[in-house]
Amino acid sequence: MNTREFVKLLLKSNPEERNPLRIRLIIIAWIYPTQNSFLFIQRKERYAKLNIDKHLILIKGEDKTESISRCTYANGKWHVVFAKDKTYSYNYNNVQWLKNPVSLDPAATIVYRSDQPLSGIKKILVFDDYIRICFVTGFKKVY
Question: Which value, in Å, is the radius of gyration of the alpha carbons in the chain?
């Protein structure tokens, strides 16, 4: 299998694995299968952030999605790795991980807060009981 066939196979894989940086690193590891290239991949992936368009992670009721690089559940506890490679363990009840939101069209939806319409909305993502609003300024808020 040559590099081009490998890339095509990789692109047919899971959509969450189509991150260009991840694909580039996997190709490096495939072309140069040394222990150093795999270590390079592991180091780079640790600092990747979760996609806030697909995930909402609340720790003790506060949105921490943007600062988390990995979150796993094992032995009755959540193990959360933050962007600076610090790992913390949390009780099961302290972490809520919501996935696959429903996206609403901001042009066709009016969002009110305290009886006042919000303006400058870029995205509206509905995660079960929570709504993440992304504004054109880059500010994000969970309600």
Answer: 19
